Amino acid sequence: EERVLTQGVLKTLASKLEDLSTCNELIGKHGAALQRSLSELEDLRGSNDGTDKVKAVNERATLFRITSNAMINACRDFLDVADSHSRRWQKALHYEREQRHHLEETIEQLAKQHNSLERAWRENPTSYAGVERSQEGDASDENEEAEFFDAMEDSPSFITVTTGGETQRKRSGGNQSMSGGVPNDWTHNENDTTGTNQMQPRRTRRSRIPDKPNYSLNLWSIMKNFHRTAKPFNPLLGETYELDRLEEYGYRSISEQVSHHPPAAAHHVASQRGWTLWQHITIDSKFRGKYISVMPFGNIHLQFHSNGNHYVWSKVTSTVHNIIVGKLWIDQSGDIDIVNTTTKDTCHLKFSPYSYFSREVPRKVTGLVEDREGAAHYILSGTWDNKMESAKIVESSQGCGGSEGKQKTVYQTLQPKLLWKKYPLPENAENMHFFSSLALTLNEPEEGVAPTDSRLRPDQRLMEAGLWDEANIEKQRLEEHQRLERKRREAQANQALDEGQDIEGYQPVWFEKRTDDCTGESTYVYRGGYWEAKDRQDWSLCPEIF
Question: Is the pLDDT of residue 226 over 50?
């Protein structure tokens, strides 16, 4: 009823507005005619035709007065109608505001309940075993390109059975060692810390950072804050970051942003304990409205110098959920094949995507280690955010077909051994973005680093201090400086092209492009010289980017 009444009022106002338009046209027409008559009257002053002209002027003046009165009346009618309904409109507007506020409160409450249900299920998933696990009734609005699906649809193709002590002694001799020389009596003491504490820290590093802002990052805070909607701190071209833990843990690393479009970084780590790691990673991302997926491209290399074993692998997809509304959480999904290019041994890891309908442990990782002949030797299991374990296979057999009709292999293993376990979070971590002890030190000011080091970025230093507005202003200045520098390089390249000279694009300072011997792909590798330059404190090769 209210809608019909409003539509009627709008039609009346439209009609009155049309009357005003008609009167305006008539006033213009009659006013022009009156002006012409007055001009003619001036020209005929003293002539015998003056009487007729005066009569014509009077007639046109009368028409102009009538039209003006009609215009005034139409304006009065329009004003009366608008004024008589203004209170009703104000009341309707107030009602709509109350409805919107109520809807906002309802959505916020639903988001809190949703997060509480997910948290309760994760803490005790067995209590929900009776929940229907069919996805037919799933009201999810993910599109067909979504990368997440029910983990039960792709269950592992093997079953693990842990054997007892007698079986271990009886059957352990029947399993061949891997081509890499791993002994059959492989053991690992999870309490053994030999070699991990031989180097003492040379300095006391910080264990705190400024507390995070004391408000919830939800839909309503987005309206007042830019933390989720603002553009992140993209590394600048030529920006570097060093992590020197040589005296503490025996390694040091250097990374450099070698490309801006597409974004790419090169990284090199050298250890005194006989290993070297290097990688060249580019990323692609897909925004799906509720989440964003980040897909890394490129290979990671790890080489041990004593035996020559060279391992190559790539990364899985990382997905940030509730990017706009709700509690942020991250998932890892996909497969990783770790290949020993020296012995051809492989390790296949599967990162299971989170599924609300699955009984599996969230963030689960499973893996199988095989030699070059395809014989399985170890089973890996755990979660990517807590711990990983390894169990040696002593016997394998073919089991019955699963629900998908696939025949599964049953592996009998020894008791699993702990490979890795995360350190507990530091005290007060909930107020420091849940950073680990290592993460707390990454942006700590360091003496003697290159002038291009990320620790020296003024916008990030301001952000860590909680000066959000100042950080954003400084960030815009740095990005504008980078754009001007890119235009300068493009102008130089165009000039060289016009002069027929060879064009040399941007060249990183500490890395150079080569062909990967393992993959045949073009990659950036460390050319050397950074740590020597640091010892001399000679940074003349570094560009001015800040």
Answer: no
Helix (H) or strand (E) holding 441: helix 437-442
Bridge pairing between strands 300-304 and 291-297: unpaired
- Region of residue 398 (left: phi > 0; alpha: psi -120 to 50; beta: else): beta
Mind spelling out the 3-state secondary structure of 513-546? EEECCCCCCEEEEECCCHHHHHHHCCCCCCCCCC
Give the residue among 141, 115, 109 at the shortest CA–CA distance from 289: 141
What is the tens place of the pLDDT at every residue in 315-360?
A: 999 999 988 777 889 999 999 999 999 999 999 999 999 888 778 8
Instruction: List the structure tokens of 76.
Output: 């009065």
Q: Which of 532, 20, 155 is nearest to 12 (CA)?
A: 20
pLDDT-derived band at 519, boundaries 50, 70, 90: confident
The most confident of 175-184, 210-219, 225-234, 282-291, by mean pLDDT: 282-291
Token pair listed for 85: 């309904």
Residue 439 has which token pair?
């993460």
Cβ contacts of 331 within 8 Å, gap of 6 or more: 148, 318, 319, 321, 353, 354, 363
Residue 291 and residue 323 in contact, taking contact as beta carbons nearer than 8 Å: yes
Q: Give helix 50-123 / helix 2-43 axis angle, nearest 10°.
A: 150
Q: How far is CA 187 from CA 136, 165, 196, 380, in A?
A: 47, 14, 18, 14
Peptide bond into 296 cis (omega under 30): no
Instruction: Look at the block and give the residue holding tokens 């989170």.
Output: 354
Domain boundaries, the chain: 2-118, 156-184+205-216+328-439
Would you state the pLDDT for residue 1? 57
- Does CATH place domain 2-118 in 1.10.10? no
Q: Contact 253/235 with Cβ under 8 angstroms?
A: no
108 burial class (0-12, 13-18, 19+ CB within 10 angstroms)?
middle
CB 4 within 8 A of CB 59: no
CB 486 within 8 A of CB 477: no
Rounded Cα–Cα distance for residues 379 and 160 (Å)? 8
| Of 105, 320, 114, residue with least CA distance to 228 | 320
Integer Cα distance of 312 and 520 in angstroms? 13
